[in-house]
Amino acid sequence: MQSRLLSLCIAITSLLPSLASAQQVYNDLSTQPEGRIYFNSVTPKSKWDLVHRKYDKTPTVIWANLYLPKEMKGRIPAMVISHGSAGLQEKDVRRWARAFNEMGIAAFIVDSFSPRNIASTEADQGKLSPAANDADALAALKLLATDPRIDSTKIGQIGFSRGGGVALDMTMEAFRKGMIDDDTKFAALVAFYPGCSQVWWATPAPKLSGTPLMMALGEKDNYTPAKLCQNFAEVMQRDRQEVEVHVYPDAYHDFDNTNAYFKYHPMSTSAQKCPQIQLDMEHGEYRYLQSGEKLASLGALEELTRACIMRGVSTGANLKQGDRAEADVKAFLRRAFQLP
Fold first, then answer.
1. Helix (H, G, I), strand (E, B), or coil: what is residue 329?
2. Which N-terminal stretch is annotated as signal sequence (predicted)?
3. Which sequence spans correspond to the domains of the chain?
């Protein structure tokens, strides 16, 4: 009996690659599929490579889950959801897909980790460049724009932590043009507690995509502190980026989680004590964000970063502030998408 079970397990295992390859990979959504959708992205090694199209063009097949409102009248808006270092979470569906569907907005929850055999980057962000999250969001944007159910002029992006960094990057034309040749662009961007210790910007001001941005920050966040993002928002506003900032009291990183919890992560890395650095993708320069002083080289930046990176951060839900942030996001999207 054991030998028969072993043979059966071997036979099933041998089928797994062919079953995976049998999944349809969509280049457009003209057939209007639902549920899990497989599509092509790329995996740049750095944001510099993405901006300058120096990445390997070999497709990386990723997937996303599409959630549609129960009632749809005409073409509807859509939101691309980009997860953080912990990967997909229950809240992505329970709070955000639900909230968007209630508004008559489709939700497209992108998984950047599982297709690349990554569970989490909390303890090692080097497992995958955040440029891959950018690329996946742009690939999702291009794909959704082909769906006859979706209004291609009203596709937004919301991201959390690492995924929040995607929203910051998408304010700049240089990132959008890293993968998109036509005029397709995001119509709204929402960044929840993104990391703002090292930010991509340019001096003089970069060419902007013209997309409004909302930042949702936690007052007690010791993973990606609110103050650093407030500093960056002032620079963005100075350079004519439309951005509204919300800081939620008594809120830690991941405060919008729908499950009440508080947790200390001793091995998670944070740049909270690092000086704020502007990474200039257009000129290959590195500056202190607020003073504008240049660093001598990339090596100097790497040495500075190694010296200030620390471990040990806290995360936790605040159900009251999570609900408040949800209401603020809905109000922001109504304005951005010109919804009733």
1. helix
2. 1-22
3. 26-336
Cis peptide before 17 (omega within 30 of 0): no
Is the CATH code 3.90.76.10 the one for domain 26-336?
no
CA 23 → CA 112, 162, 169, 196, 223, distances in Å? 17, 28, 31, 38, 38
| Extended strands (E) in 249-308 | 262-270, 277-280, 285-288
CA 231 to chain centre: 20
Tokens linked to 61? 């097949």
Residue type, 63: W
pTM: 0.92
> What does the pLDDT profile of the chain (340 residues) look like in tens digits?
434 433 433 343 333 333 344 689 999 999 999 999 999 999 999 999 999 999 999 999 999 999 999 999 899 999 999 999 999 999 999 999 999 999 999 999 999 999 999 999 988 889 999 999 999 999 999 999 999 999 999 999 999 999 999 999 999 999 999 999 999 999 999 999 999 999 999 999 999 999 999 999 999 999 999 999 999 999 999 999 999 999 999 999 999 999 999 999 998 888 888 899 999 988 889 999 989 999 999 899 999 988 998 899 999 999 999 999 999 999 999 999 999 8
Using CA atoms, how far apart are residues 131 and 135, in angstroms rounded to an integer? Answer: 6
Rg over alpha carbons for the chain, rounded to the nearest Å, is 20
